[in-house]
Amino acid sequence: MGSALASSAASLPPTTTPSLVSGAVASGAPAAASGVFSGYRPPPGTFDEYLGLGSAPRPELAAACAAFGAMDAHRLDSLQRRADGAFLAGGVTFSVYSDQRGTEKVFPFDLLPRVITAAEWRHLERGLRQRVVAINLFLNDIYGPQHILNDRTMPRALVWSSRGYHERLHGLRPPHGVYTHVSGIDLVRDGDGNFVVLEDNVRCPSGVSYLLENRGALQRVLPGLFQQHRVRSVDAWPDRLRMTLDRTAPAGEAPGSTSRVSEPSRAVVLTPGPYNSAYFEHSFLARTMGIPLVQGTDLFVDDDRVWLRTTRGVSQVHTVYRRIDDDFLDPRWGRPDSLLGVPGIMQAWARGNVTLANAPGTGVADDKAIYPWIPTIIRYYLDQEPILAQVPTYVGYEPDQLDHMLDNLESLVVKAVDEAGGYGMLFGPRSTAAQRIEFAAALADNPRRYIAQPVVELSTCPSWTGTTIAPRRVDLRPFILHDGDEPWVLPGGLTRVALTDGSYVVNSSQGGGSKDTWVLQEPRVS
Predict the structure, then answer these.
(1) Is pTM, for the whole model, over 0.85?
(2) Rounded distance between C-alpha atoms, residue 247 and residue 251, angstroms
(3) In terms of DSSP bridges, do strands 299-302 and 305-310 run parallel, antiparallel, or are they unpaired?
(4) The CATH classification of domain 251-353, taken from the options 3.90.870.30, 3.90.1300.10, 1.20.120.450, 3.40.50.11290
(5) Residue 242: CB partners within 8 Å, gap ≥ 6?
(6) Which residues of the chain does CATH 3.30.1490.270 include?
(7) Helix, strand, or coil here: 325?
(8) Right CATH number for 392-454 from 3.80.10.10, 2.120.10.30, 2.40.50.1020, 3.30.1490.270?
(9) Hey, CA dihedral for 336, 339, 344, 345, is it positive or negative?
(10) What's the rounded Cα separation, in Å, for the pair 526 and 519?
């Protein structure tokens, strides 16, 4: 999702950015949005990230409204073009396999940032940490003693029937007990402005490189904004990710071996290759962490240890940040026809000689049919009430809920539990009769594979359309690192935006883009 942008975009002098505290804003009296915001109207019933009641900027967002509202359409369009040019020059791309015009696309970036206050972020940070800790405990349990299943707190058949659950891993424990090294939790705001969890991504969550590139692009074209706002930095991610990989490397003497690792921990990023949709992110993260980007043929296993072929010989690899799904990771363990993985790497992991991040088997917690149970999981393992709410969810494996789903397809969002990127989904209110018939048949054929949720009126955020500023729906994917101690949450997240008017689909594969996400620093104490 990004490389260090070799942007040729000219930076605006700080003096061209208007003062962010003036007039009514400074006095505390909210003024109606003006300038390019004067005709801005969010859809009824939605929470807008910038404007409150009466089309007045929310007090904490008034400064951002003032900054962009003072620019005319020509200036905004010029800035957007500079940012787009920076993304093109930096090769910030993604792939859409189904597009017949070509798979490689420049990632769409929207100029206007999404702003989250310090108070809002404190709440989110607590809830995200709680959620990741509970999910990691759940994974340790279901691949270990299975207390939550044995005491029937959670249905055993639900877990065992998940495509992400691998019974062969039962009894194995990853180094330091960490499954969820990197997590991306998708959040949306409801109509009241409350953040709620939409889904969990704990297998190979992607998107953080676009987040970092978004920040770099905006800093290049509007440096004055960052001089005047107190925005928390996102620059620590590569160092913190590398630290997490190092800290979760196998410690001390490896089981079954008489030798002790004496060299510094070595980590690599394992990619399927340049044709993968997230290859840009793989190369970006390897480069910014200062570690090798490798494919399966660059590694081999000997004596149940993983080795890297280099121009100077071979060296042992202690941690593999793998961006390959479980089934393709090792042809001796998963798909025998896989040419992407490393033969024997699962045995090396099982012997405790290498860390795989994220750990194999983590995908069961990605299963959308497990999602409704996360509040129960939090209460069970942490004896705490969930800090973050969730979207009400119907699951196809429950007969009465399946009946409700079938009777209300026109008003629900139906999702396949094992799909991502907006695929395998029916948006009921905008579906055709033929589409509903097709999904009804799929539900009846395999009810375990589907869930349904009511439509959440996603919050809107001002976005540049090329001619004006208009409301577009957004979600948020914060990223969390976990090394066995307290999880660390990157102060921000990937804000994805539905660039099409009226659309609820924010996925890049479905025509969405992204914005820079600002988390404001705590107010100064005078």
Answers:
(1) yes
(2) 9
(3) antiparallel
(4) 3.40.50.11290
(5) 267, 289, 290, 291
(6) 392-454
(7) coil
(8) 3.30.1490.270
(9) negative
(10) 21
Residue 134 amino acid letter: A
Residues sharing a CB contact under 8 Å with residue 494, sequence separation 6 or more, in sequence order? 184, 207, 208, 210, 211, 214, 476, 477, 479, 514, 517
Residue ranges matching CATH 3.40.50.11290 in the chain: 251-353
Q: Which two tokens stand for residue 321?
A: 């940040």
Separation of first and last alpha carbons in the chain: 40
Long-range contacts of 305-308 (CB under 8 A, 24+ apart): 305/254, 305/257, 305/348, 305/353, 305/354, 306/342, 306/345, 306/348, 306/353, 306/354, 308/266, 308/268
Provide the angle, in degrees to the nearest 10, between the axes of the packed helices 208-221 and 73-90: 130
Q: Which two tokens stand for residue 504?
A: 């609820």
User: What pLDDT shows up at residue 106?
Assistant: 76
Q: Are strands 109-116 and 469-477 parallel, antiparallel or unpaired?
A: unpaired
Read off the tokens for 96: 């859409």
The alpha carbons of the chain give a radius of gyration, in whole angstroms, of 24
Token digits for 434?
């033929």
pLDDT at position 96, please?
53
In the 3-class helix/strand/coil scheme, how is 47-63 assigned residue by residue?
CECCECHHHCECHHHHH
Q: Find, among 384, 321, 411, the residue nearest to 358 by Cα.
A: 321
Q: How far apart are CA 259 and CA 302, in angstroms?
A: 14
Integer Cα distance of 372 and 368 in angstroms: 8
Q: Are 187 and 459 in contact (CB under 8 A)?
A: no
Pairwise CA distance, residues 332 & 168, whole Å: 13
Q: How far apart are CA 432 and CA 492, in angstroms?
A: 37
Question: In the structure encoding, which two tokens stand for residue 233, read together?
Answer: 């930095």
DSSP 359-405: PTTGGGGG-TTTGGGHHHHHHHHH-S--SSEE---EETTSHHHHHHH
Backbone angles phi, psi at 76, to 5 degrees: -60, -40
Q: Which two tokens stand for residue 3?
A: 């490389």
Report whether 365 contacts 132 (CB < 8 A). Answer: no
Ramachandran sector of residue 91 (left: φ over 0; alpha: ψ -120 to 50; beta: rest) = left
Token pair of 281, please?
A: 């992110």
Closest CA to 105 of 220, 277, 274, 271: 277
Q: What is the mean pLDDT of each run of 10 residues along the chain (526 residues)?
A: 34 31 33 67 89 79 82 90 86 60 70 93 98 98 98 96 96 97 96 94 93 93 81 96 96 43 76 91 96 97 96 94 96 95 98 97 96 98 98 95 97 91 84 96 96 93 90 96 96 93 78 90 79
Phi, psi of 481 (to 5 degrees): -110, 140
pLDDT of residue 8: 30
Hey, what amino acid is at 303? Answer: D
